C-alpha cells in the first residue's frame, strides 16, 4: 500500500500530566509525517494539562477521578470500554503514571505501547532519569515497548541512546531525554502505521525493513 492511500491508524492516548508527548504526536500528524489520528485522550487526572492540548486540537477527552481508580480493575474496564467505543487500533501511553491491567491488555493484545525514559531493562520505575543520573551512567536513552502485566517490561520495539555529557545537571539530562522522546515516539508509531512491527513467538519484536 502506498503512502498516499494508507488509512491512518486510530490512537487512544493515556496520560497523567502535561502531555508534551501527546503534543509531539499531534504536531507530527499535522505535519503529514505520521499516518495516524488521535481518536480519544484519557487522563488519570482531571487537572492534567494534556487534556487542554487535546481539546485545543479538537480531540475527544475523558478523565477519571481518584474514586474510580480506587479499584484499578474497574477503572481499566471503563477505559477499555471507552477505547473500544472510539475504535482505536493502538493504545499509546504518554506519561501515564499507572499500570494497565487485564481489561486493557486483553482488549488490545500487543497493541498497548509505552514510552520509558531509560534504556530498558535498566532503570525501571517512575524515577528512571534521576536513577540513571545518580548512578553516573555515561549512556542512557529512551525505550518504546509494548506494555504487559509487569511494570516497564514487555517486548521492546525501539530504543535510542543518549551520551551523557560531563557536567550536565539532572535537569539538562531530562531536557535531552524529552527531546529524544518527542522524536522517537512518533517515529515508532509510524512504524506501527506502516504495519512493520511484529511480536515474535519468543516475545521479542521484529521490525520489517522499508519495502
Pick out its properties.
Rossmann fold; alpha/beta; seven-stranded mixed β-sheet; globular; two-stranded antiparallel ribbon; 7 helices; about 210 residues
Give an account of the 3D structure.
With 211 residues, the protein is α/β, with parallel strands linked by helices. It has one domain: Formyl transferase, N-terminal domain (Rossmann fold, 3-Layer(aba) Sandwich), CATH 3.40.50. 36% of the residues lie in helices and 24% in strands. It has 7 helices and 9 strands; from the N terminus they run E-H-E-H-E-H-H-E-H-E-H-E-E-H-E-E. The strands form 2 sheets. Strands 3-2-1-4-5-6-7 form a 7-stranded mixed beta sheet, sandwiched between helices. Helix 1 (20-31) packs across helix 7. The model has no long low-confidence stretch (mean pLDDT 95).
Amino acid at each position: 500500500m502506498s503512502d498516499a492511500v494508507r488509512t491512518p491508524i486510530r490512537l487512544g492516548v493515556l496520560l497523567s500530566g502535561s502531555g508534551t508527548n501527546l503534543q509531539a504526536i499531534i504536531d507530527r500528524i499535522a505535519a503529514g509525517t505520521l499516518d495516524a489520528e488521535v481518536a480519544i485522550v484519557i487522563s488519570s487526572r482531571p487537572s492534567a494539562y494534556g487534556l487542554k492540548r487535546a481539546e485545543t486540537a479538537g480531540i475527544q477527552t475523558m478523565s477519571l477521578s481518584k474514586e474510580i481508580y480506587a479499584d484499578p480493575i474497574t477503572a481499566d474496564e471503563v477505559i477499555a470500554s471507552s477505547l473500544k467505543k472510539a475504535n482505536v487500533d493502538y493504545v499509546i501511553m504518554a506519561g501515564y503514571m499507572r499500570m494497565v491491567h487485564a481489561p486493557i491488555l486483553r482488549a488490545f493484545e500487543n497493541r498497548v505501547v509505552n514510552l520509558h525514559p531509560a534504556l530498558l531493562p535498566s532503570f525501571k520505575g517512575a524515577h528512571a532519569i534521576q536513577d540513571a543520573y545518580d548512578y553516573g551512567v555515561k549512556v542512557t536513552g529512551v525505550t518504546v515497548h509494548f506494555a504487559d502485566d509487569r511494570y516497564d517490561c514487555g517486548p521492546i520495539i525501539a530504543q535510542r541512546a543518549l551520551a551523557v555529557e560531563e557536567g550536565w545537571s539532572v535537569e539538562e539530562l531530562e531536557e535531552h531525554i524529552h527531546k529524544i522522546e518527542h522524536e522517537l515516539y512518533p517515529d515508532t508509531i509510524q512504524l506501527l502505521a506502516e504495519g512493520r512491527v511484529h511480536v515474535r513467538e519468543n516475545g521479542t519484536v521484529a521490525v520489517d525493513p522499508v519495502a
